[in-house]
Write a structure and sequence with these properties.
This protein is mainly alpha-helical. The protein has one domain. It contains 11 helices and no strands. α1 packs across α10. The chain starts with 19 loop residues before the first helix and ends with a helix.
Length: 257
């Protein structure tokens, strides 16, 4: 009889990685940038707003102009519905780099312009003060949550609180604006705030909510790991910059000789 050959098993070639970035990239991309389609939509919307301003569709009437209501609420409503019904839109929102989404909210500090307009009697205080302070508070809070994200310490609760602050600011500004109806807000360039800035930043906060509810722990690990990796590639002290400058100067002198 022929002796039986012992059966051997081949080790599995499957490997795992402890690198958070590798784990995240294998499932869902967390650091995507806005595509060309996003910028095209923004450009078209700006064009429509410009034409509406030229046609006087936003000018004050007995009540809120229908065109203004559509300009403020239309994009937000459409994006919210698309995010809840379209898997493609949800994937797009989930893939955007949260660092970029939060950093964009830093621009909200330009709401200080409302306070300046109030100081020079260009806007009524009943509208300018809450709108300006709310925007500035949101911009400062955006810096705090962005730094927490980079350190990997940002929690969902803090992110939800930040989103509530930003959306609450918009709600107060829109309601007071519709009640008081400051004429200056119907004119260029201030008309850009309710018709472009409010929908744009509100949609970013919807993206924030979507991301907070999907793969949050993994997303936080990947983005903070990417931030730490990028930090290690940068000079960490003033002496490093001095050494580089000295080397560059020496190389320049040698080449001139």
């Amino acid at each position: 009889m022929t002796p039986m050959t012992p059966m051997t098993t081949t080790p599995s070639m499957t490997t795992t990685s402890d690198d958070p970035a590798a784990i995240g990239s294998s499932r869902t991309r967390f650091d995507a940038l806005p595509g060309a389609g996003t910028y095209l939509v923004l450009a078209v919307w700006m064009g429509l707003v410009s034409m509406a301003v030229s046609a006087g569709l936003f000018e004050a009437t007995d009540g809120p102009p229908p065109a203004l209501v559509v300009a403020v609420a239309g994009p937000i409503t459409a994006f919210a519905i698309a995010s809840s019904t379209s898997s493609k839109v949800r994937r797009y929102g989930r893939s955007l780099d949260l660092r970029l989404v939060l950093a964009a909210q830093l621009w909200r500090v330009v709401g200080a312009g409302f306070l300046l307009a109030w100081a020079f009697d260009r806007l009524p205080g009943e509208f300018a003060v809450p709108a300006g302070l709310g925007d500035m508070a949101t911009g400062v809070a955006a810096l705090a949550v962005s730094l927490s994200l980079l350190r990997g310490t940002l929690t969902r609760r803090r992110l939800y609180a930040f989103t509530a602050l930003g959306l609450g600011d918009f709600a107060v500004a829109v309601v007071t604006g519709l009640i008081i109806r400051p004429i200056e807000m119907d004119l260029w360039p201030l008309i850009v705030f309710p018709t472009v800035a409010v929908p744009f930043f509100a949609m970013l906060q919807i993206v924030t909510l979507v991301q907070a509810g999907h793969d949050w722990d993994e997303r936080l690990a990947v983005l903070s790991a990417n931030a730490n990796r990028a930090g290690r590639l940068q000079p960490t002290s003033s002496s490093s910059w001095a050494n580089r400058a000295s080397s560059l100067g020496s190389a320049t002198l040698d080449s001139s000789r």
